[in-house]
Amino acid sequence: MTSVLDVFVPFDWRSTFFSSNDEHDWIMQRVPSLPKSLPKLLEFDDFRNMQQASNAAAAVSSDQSSLFSSLYKYCFETSSTALGDLTTPTSCLVLLILILLLRLVKRILLPLFRNIGVRAAKQTHGTDWIRDNPIRIHKFGEYVFRLLYHSLISCYGVWAFSKKKWWLQSGTRSLFQGFPYHAIEPRMAWYYLLQSAYNLDALVSLLEISFVFKWKQKQQQKPKQWSLLPFSIEWSPTVRGDFQEMFVHHVVTNLLVMGSSFCRLTRIGSMVFLVHDLSDIPVDCSKLANFVKYKKTTIGCFVMMVLVWIATRLYALPFIVFRAALTESHHVIDQGLSPLIYICYRHFFYSLLAFLILLHVTWFGMFLRIFYTMVHKNEVHDYSEHKAGETNPDPSAMQRNGKRHKE
């Protein structure tokens, strides 16, 4: 609490309200600045100057060290650069470029992926079903992209970290020992950049598919009605049934990504990433099968999803990763970091991780509801997409059929 006041109160509130002879001397202790307590990350200008000095000492022409080659070495061959902290201006610029590239790739690939859903549904359900279920086809394309991303990023995570000594080979204590002098290797820096770009885009995409903004027209407004906004916000037909849970999940995830990067807790952060990405693969497969109503495939993917969910999000995350954070994170002060910094920041990560676990338990309860419906009604209902079940027709199809009847 005192550190929060230090940030937001513009004057020295300690000397104003308390004296040094006060009974509560702990109030007078100022929490050291975390960025000043961590090793400085290498900026590109400093890296360039070091290269030029090295070339001068070796009598190498500066032309042999071009800007692009220096940029490549800085980004992909040098550890502990400014790319290792997502809050630095360098990382923010790269992050913005990655998000724009990601949205461009999605703009190109999603129509192609939707066509896959059209062809798959056409073979089993016919063209009428496709015409009456445009939202399913739209979401099918989105989840093909999600499946592709989660598969590739999981393979990258295993490839990048499985041979590291700290990657569960020396126990979870190694996630914190040696802090804050962990070298942020290029693999880790880019892993965080890609994950952050995807999660920020996922938050924006969730809002895009959940809300519809409509400009108000004067003719439609009643005389007694008034609004400060020139537009209205309505739920979109493509809104998820678990929008509230998913929105909170995205906010918490992005806070964890940025917070762990800022505090250089990338080792345990990468473990949280990997647990989520591995468990998302069967989730995506199950949703894809259900969107095109492949019942047997959906049931098989659902069983696999539940088993992987239990192993990763209900066991590995709370009983390995979160337990390590609770019982072994104190090793971050072994190398001289101020205990006040540890005390100040630990509850931020404890609460976010606990919130994630609570959301995972909530979703597991939803899975049990799906299983109950599957057994007792012999039907597959995705309550994460439709809170009341899937008995209601596609809203877009209802509107279109209504127009036909009027005609």
Protein architecture, described:
The protein is an all-alpha fold. Helices cover 66% and strands 2% of the residues. It has helices at 2-8, 13-17, 34-37, 44-57, 67-76, 89-125, 127-132, 134-161, 186-210, 243-262, 266-291, 295-328, 339-377, 395-406; strands at residues 211-215, 231-235. Strands 1-2 form a two-stranded antiparallel ribbon. Helix 6 packs across helix 8 (134-161) and helix 12 (295-328) packs antiparallel against helix 13 (339-377). The chain is globular and about 70 Å long.
Backbone CA Rg: 26 Å
Kindly state the number of beta strands: 2
Name the average pLDDT. Answer: 84
How far the N terminus sits from the C terminus, by CA atoms, comes to: 65 Å
Low-confidence stretches: 392-407
SSE layout and pairing:
Elements (H helix, E strand, L loop, with lengths): L1 H7 L4 H5 L16 H4 L6 H14 L9 H10 L12 H37 L1 H6 L1 H28 L24 H25 E5 L15 E5 L7 H20 L3 H26 L3 H34 L10 H39 L17 H12 L1
Antiparallel strand pairs: 1-2
Helix pairs in contact: 4-5, 6-8, 6-9, 8-9, 8-11, 9-10, 10-13, 11-12, 12-13
Short description:
With 407 residues, the chain is mainly α. The chain contains 14 helices and two strands; from the N terminus they run αααααααααββααααα. Residues 392-407 have low confidence and may be disordered.
Can you give keywords for this protein?
66% helix, 407 residues, two-stranded antiparallel ribbon, disordered C terminus, globular, mainly alpha, 2 strands, 14 helices
